[in-house]
Structure formats: structure tokens, C-alpha cells
Amino acid sequence: MAQSVHWDPPSGQLGFNQVSQISLVFENCEPDGPPNLPQVDGLIFGRPSQSSQTSIVNFTMTRTFSLVFPVRPSKKTTLSIPAFEIKTDKGNLRVSPANYSVGDASVGNTGVSVDDIASAKLSVPKNTFWAGEVFPVTYNLDVTRRYFHSLASNVEWPATPFAAEEWSKPDPNEALVNGERRVVSVQTTRAYAKQPGNLTLNPTNQMVNLVVGSTGFGIFSQPNVEQRQLDSNSVPVTIKPLPAPPADFSGAVGEFTFTSKIIPTSGGIGEPITWTIELSGTGNWPDINGLPQRDVSNDFQVVQPKSKRTMKEGTLFDGTLVEDVVLVPSRAGTYRLAPVHFTYFDTKSGSYKTISSEAATVTVTSATQAPAPAATNPNGPVQFSLPPASQNTAPAAPTLPNATPPVAPENLPRDPVVESAHGRAPLKAGIFWIIFFVPATVLIVIVWLILAGIRSRITDPQRQRRAARANLKTLLAEIRSSANQPASLRNKLNAWQHQTAALWEIPHAAPGASLIETRVGARQKEIASTWATLWSDADRAQHSRNTALPSDWISRAEAALNAVQIPGWPPLSLLGARNLFPFLYILFFALLPLSAHAESAVDAYKRGEYPAAETEWRKTLETSPSDWSARHNLGLALAQQERWAEATAAWTGAFLLNPRSEITRWDLALGLQHSGLAPTELVEFSRGKNRFKLARLASPGEWQIILVIAALLFAAAILVLLFQGYKRAGTWAKPTALFMSLVAMLLAVLGTLGLRVYGPLADPEVAMVWKASSLRSIPTEADISQKSSPLSAGSIAVVEKTFLGWSKLRFPGGQTGWAQSEDVIKLYR
Predict the structure, then answer these.
(1) C-beta of residue 686 within 8 angstroms of C-beta of residue 671
(2) Which of 73, 219, 643, 734 meets the CB 3.0–4.6 Å disulfide criterion with 575?
(3) Where does the pLDDT of residue 131 fall: very low under 50, low under 70, confident under 90, or very high at 90 and above?
């Protein structure tokens, strides 16, 4: 009898599509596990929050535990939560039913419905499409600016029975509509229907946070936010069936292009020929299964093709389908490869179209090697059902050149000794920083506050009301002077009503007296009836036969206007975040299109735009120089431009960052083979024999970490011995310390050996000279009397410093000199 569970409130009214809160209250008990609530059609429960309270009345203590559920009605009807049993820590208890009526809810306490300030609309360019035709779908969200806070969820749209892409990202913008600022967000997607018929695009729904007031003052004010769901309209569409298709119809609907390429068109017996066909375009790609078959002579062995489908990032209906067929001729002769035909339905013309590749001729000459075995069927063409030729197609490793160390530069004069000279002594640190910071900081703060104050006055929510009050004073003076002119009086009264609506922030174009009284009463209840009466008199003078105003109307209007109380501009509002930091929002929206349209370097490389890909990967290395994959990719872009020496330098850097990767080892070998550079250490690392095989198990940076670990392990062994010496450890201490010492010594030997094998390549400032140059004693080309020495391509040196486009290099033998920085590529930086 002392425990109970009930809903609070047990009845009342909920707003349609408005998030409200109801509590499940436990008195003198708590729930035993998550509550199992009954399903209520038309009522959506959210995740609950918890609260507890203890009270003592007449020496009787009562403990209350509450689960507060956010609920949202999705139907305009009477909702009933039926009675149910719930498990508590005091046993099972029965919860009495609760009943709620659902009606239209106003936004906060404004008396304005959500339909008056916000709308969501779904639209398509037309209402009739072909089966399989891809068409755009647009979602438009429109919210009055002063009520809009933020989007609370993504657009939810059950697309079935249509196949559809993801919605584009929301990009809210502001627009001026009928003299009022609105937040407009437009999102798009694309869809198509496979089956014909009369179908309907289901409505969307999205949760929006609306501002319904604020609490606090100045910089401590916080907006009161209310979450509402906006439902869009449904759109009926008609999907027309396709006309009777031809026999070779592929099932593709849309716009497509078809290309064919044969490389090479001539060769010897046994030499492979690649026949590539590519289909690309926009259409119903989920329903496109493959490319048409091709027929070739039985004098060719055919490697079964594997289709490669590539879709444009973020899309479902823009793609490319490629098939590569390898033909191996077994007999000399001239062969004609027939064109390949692809038939699809063109939605623009409403007809079937066939696109074809051009016929090609392949010439096969005799060869000394034994021909591949011919197909067993001597009659008719060979289809792609033939098994692939059983041969090892793995690429052979690049052939490495002989190690030829670069010619060491001749000795150059050393740097001159700098003579002593006097200069201006710097200021003390404290005085310098005061002079540096204080004037600039004070100036910035003053200008910043002035700009924030100007913006605060512009964004003051009461500014429009104050302007409307000033306009009303002018209008009343004009009405007093034009009382005997009916036509002019009607125009003045119409303007008076428009300014009155702006004064009380009424969004309706033609509000009635009752709405005027409601809105005025929400702010100043004592003058609400006066304004409603003035409005009714103005309506009567404009729209009835009797156009005369009551004799005291102007006096009453002036008195009512004088009684209006509008807060002045609050100076502390300039400290608000939207006034102090407006540039953050501007910067965000300015950079958003750049990030949305940023092009991937990989995409540029795949399209053959190698300089663009090179530029993007160099930008990546500027911010992340330790990214070995970016160095690998940069080498690829350089190699495609026949810049093998620069590619070798890039690949060397990738190898030094990750020498265990087969990719970086292959890159290094390939670069050394094609560039003509053959430094001894790099060739030996590429071969990977003896100590070089051991060294490339880890990068120089990793060998350094291993040495640090060895030192820490040796220190730990000494600590164990110390504990044993102070009788803080048992007999296990000595063997454990010995084992740790042996492991530390092994790691130290391996780390030292690894770093010694890398030699100068383990220096973080190491660089490679990628083209033949000159090593100079001073960093200039103007003085022809200075000493210089030839500098071989492939030389490895450490960059000590840079100066105006020159780099000072230090070679393993101690030789130093200056070379132009453009001739040097750093391997780690």
C-alpha cells in the first residue's frame, strides 16, 4: 500500500508533432530494469531521463523516482496509454491508464501555429517518367528566421518503391520573402522506379529546433528551444512502361557513351592483345548487369574478362563499366574484330538507341617461339566461356643497375670565420612583449567592440518594433490631416494596419481583431482591448459603406501608441556570440563550398591529369611529411610525366618511412632502374642482402625507438637488482634482471647496427641531389672566381641550412658546400 506508480500528468492535451514530456513516477520504489511500455498507436516515446526527490511531511519520509519521457504525437486524435504492470524493486505494480487529447499546438506561447512560420515541400520537375528513368527530387525547407534555431535531424524519406540516392547535405541560406527574412534549405536527390504504374513519392519528415523565447540577460541569455516535426507533401507520379524492346536491349535506361580500344593492333604469335570496352553515363545502373558479348576467331585464346564497375563518389546513377579481354594469337594473319553494339532506351527522345564501337583490324606476324595451342573447335567464333590461359602473369621485378657510387665533389674552401662586430642590443623580454602586445591588443579590442555594437544594433530583435512605432506616429499625423479625403484615408489606414502588425510581430497578412487582442495581450494585457477596437474601427472605415472614422479614433490611437512599451537597445548585447564572432559563421559558409567541391588527387590521377595529382600530393606532404603513401603516390605522378629522377627521390623517402612494405621496395627498385641513379646504399637496400636485409626490417625512426626501449629495459633490470639489494625482492630478481639485460643488449645491438647501415639516410635532414649540378663554396652564381665542383645526380647529403634558394650540404666525408635548393629533394621533410 505504501508504493505506487502513475503517469504525471495522467491526462491533458498534447500538441500534434510537438515534443512534450510526461513522467512515470515511482513512489517509495524504483524500476527493476528498463520499463516495458505498451505500444500506443500515434504516440512516439523517446529515451527517458531520470530524477529523484525525497520529502518529509509530518515526520513521514516519501521518496519519489521519476522517468521523464519525451513524447511526440503523430496523429490528431485522443491517445490512451493502457494500464500495464511494471517490475519494481518492491515487486510488480499496476500503472493506471492515462488519456491525452491531441490538437494543433502553437509555437511556445506565441499563439502562432507551426504552419504559419515553417513549411516543408517535396517536388519533382514533372509528374510523368519512363520506367527506369532517373529523375531529380527536391526537398525545400522554409522557416521564419526569428524562430529558426537549428536542424534537429536529417531528412527521413521512405523511398520505396523507388530506388534513390542519399540526400545532398543541407545548406541553409537566408532570403527576404514578402519583407520578412526566411531560412531556406534546399536538398536534392535522384530516384527511379523499375515497374510502371501510378505511384506516389512518400512524404518526408524532419525535426527542427525552433526558438520560442529566451531566459537570462545579456551574455547570460539562453534561447528557449522547442523541437517540432515538419512533414512534407506527397507527390503522385506516373511511371510509363517502355515500348516493345528490340531483341538486343540491354535493360539500360538513360544517357550512355560506349568506347572500344585495342592495344596493340599488331604483334607476333603468342603476344597478348588487350581489347577494352567501356560503358559510361547516367541511368539505372542497379539494373545493368554487364556488357554485350564479343566474337573473335578461334585462332585466339581468350582470357575470361572481369568487369570493373566504378560509380562516381556519392552517387548511385553515374558510373562506368569496363571489361578488358586478353587475346593471345596462335596463328599469323590479318583478323577483323567486329564492332560491339549496345542498345539502351533514351529518355529524352523516348526511343531505343544503339551505340557501336568501330571495327578494328589486328595483324599477327610469325614469331620464333612456339605458338599457344589453338582451340579445339575449328569452326565458328570463340565465346568468352573459354577458360583463361594457364600462365604466370605476375610482373617480373625491375632489373637493378650495378651499384655506381656518385663521384665525390672536390674539396672546397671552408666557411670564413666571422669577425666580431657590434650591433643594437635587443630590449628586455618584458618591455619588448609589452610594446609588442599592448597597443595592438587594445586597438583590436576597441575596434572589435565598436563593430560588435554596430552589429548588435542591427540584429536587435526589437529594432523593427521601434521602427514600426515611429512610422505609426507619422501615419497618425498624416491621417489627422487627410480626414476629409476618403481615398487617401483608406491608404493611410491600410498602412497603419501594416505597421501595427509589424509593431506586434504578427506574421499574418490580414489578421483579425481577435488575433490582434491575443498578440497584444501576450505583451501588454492592459491595452489589448484598446488596440483590438482601433483595428475593428479601421476595418470598418476601409471596407464598409460608412468610410468615416469615429471622431475620437485618432486620439485613442495616439494614446494607445504612447502606452506601448518597447525595450531599448541593450548595450551588453554586443557581447553576444553572434555579434562578437559573426566572421566564424561567414568563414564556415565560405569554406563549405570549397570543401564540398575539393577534388581528390586519386581521381585526377585516374583521369590522367598527372600535374594536378602531383600538386595535390605535394600539398599533402607539406602538412604531413611523414605520410609515406603520399610520397609513393607523388612518385607515381612524377613517373607518369617521365620525371624518373624526382620520382626516385619521392620513392626513396617512402621507403625510408616504411621499408617493410613490398610497395615501397618495388618503387625503389623501379626508380633506380629507370632513373639511372645508382647510389650504393640504395641499390643494396633494394637488393636486401646480408645486413641490409636486417636493417630494412624497420625504418630509421623505428630503430631509434628500439634503442630507447633497450635503454628503458636495461634501466628496469638495474631497478630490479636494487630492489633485491634492499631485500625488497625475492630470489627471482637476479635471473629476471639478467634476462632483461640480455634482451636490452640484443635490442641495443640490433638498433645500433640498423642505424649504422642506414648511415646518413637516418638523419632527419637527409636529401638527394636528383639532377647533376654544381657544389659551390658560397651561395651565389654571381662571383665567377669562387671555387666549385661538379655534383653528381644521386648524391646523398645532409642539409645543414638554407639561404635564399640555396641549401648547404654536408657529405659523409665531411665535405660541405652550397647547391641550389631546387636541385635537392629532402627525403623526410
Answers:
(1) no
(2) 219
(3) very high
User: Do 147 and 204 share a structural domain?
Assistant: yes
Are the CB atoms for 66 and 23 separated by under 8 Å? yes
Question: CA dist 753 to 317, 693, 761, Å?
Answer: 57, 12, 13
In a domain, 701, yes or no: yes
C-alpha cell at 546: 460608412
CA distance 178 to 51: 47
Contact present, 362 and 335 (Cβ < 8 Å): yes
Nearest to 650 by CA among 673, 662, 626, 633: 633
Angle among Cα 79, 81, 82 to the nearest 5 degrees reads 125
Inform me whether the pLDDT recorded for 810 exceeds 50: yes
Q: Are 21 and 63 in contact (CB under 8 A)?
A: no
Angle at 163 between CA 160 and CA 164, to 5 degrees: 105
Tell me the C-alpha distance between 32 and 802, whole Å.
Answer: 72
Answer positive or negative: Cα dihedral of 501, 507, 509, 512.
negative
- Name the DSSP letter for residue 113: B
Give the Cα separation of 190 and 157 in Å (integer): 12
Of 316, 348, 365, which residue constitutes the final position of a domain? 365
pLDDT in tens, 612-665: 888 888 888 888 888 888 888 888 888 888 888 888 888 888 888 888 888 888
Q: d(Cα 230, Cα 204) in Å, to the nearest integer?
A: 8
Calpha distance 330→365 (Å, rounded): 10
In a domain, 620, yes or no: yes
At 712, give phi and psi (nearest 5°).
-65, -40
> Which triple of cell numbers denotes residue 150?
537549428
Report the pLDDT value the prediction gives residue 51, as an integer from 0 to 100: 84
In the sheet that holds 796-803, the strands lie side by side as 788-791, 773-776, 816-820, 806-810, 796-803, 766-769, 824-826
C-alpha cell recorded at residue 11: 491526462
Residues 126, 64: one domain?
A: no
Please determine, for residue 392, whether its predicted confidence score (pLDDT) is greater than 60: no
Cis peptide before 161 (omega within 30 of 0): yes
- The whole domain housing 231 covers 114-240
State the Cα–Cα distance between residues 164 and 141, nearest whole angstrom.
Answer: 20
What digits encode the pLDDT tens for the residues 476-502?
888 887 766 666 777 888 888 888 888
Cα–Cα dist 404/317, whole Å: 55
> Cα–Cα distance between 54 and 61 in angstroms, integer?
7
Rounded CA gap, 656 and 665, in Å? 10
Contact 652, 628 (CB under 8 A): no
* Size of the chain in residues: 829
Q: Report the alpha-carbon distance of residue 651 to residue 643 in Å, rounded.
A: 12
Q: What is the pTM of this model?
A: 0.41
In a domain, 391, yes or no: no
Q: Give the DSSP per-residue string, 797-817.
A: EEEEEEETTEEEEE-TTS-EE
Which of 103, 122, 143 terminates a domain? The answer is 103
CATH classification of the domain holding 84: 2.60.40
**Same domain, yes or no: 275 and 172:** no
Please check whether residue 432 lies inside any domain of the structure: no
Number of folded domains that form the chain: 7
